[in-house]
Amino acid sequence: MLTTTQEMQNFITNAIASGLDKFLPALIAQNNKIEKEIFNLTEAASYLNMSPHTLRKKVDEKKITYIQDERILQFRKKPLDNYLDKFTIKN
Known about the structure:
By secondary structure, this protein is α+β, with helices and mostly antiparallel strands.
């Protein structure tokens, strides 16, 4: 049981710190996802909510614009957004 004001302050400080440790990485990841302009294959697949294998098929079918440097595929955010817009149903 917490008996002193100092013990309560320490408890609250520790609780907040442990909460931040738990949620801060997710908040940072979400922020990075929003600001990022160029994605690798895995990141682009995650952004589009599909598997990397499915994204690779879309690339092979020429349905998604990509950048290729040697064997590395990269994707710009705007064409990914345009791809999503094609399947957005507007009422």
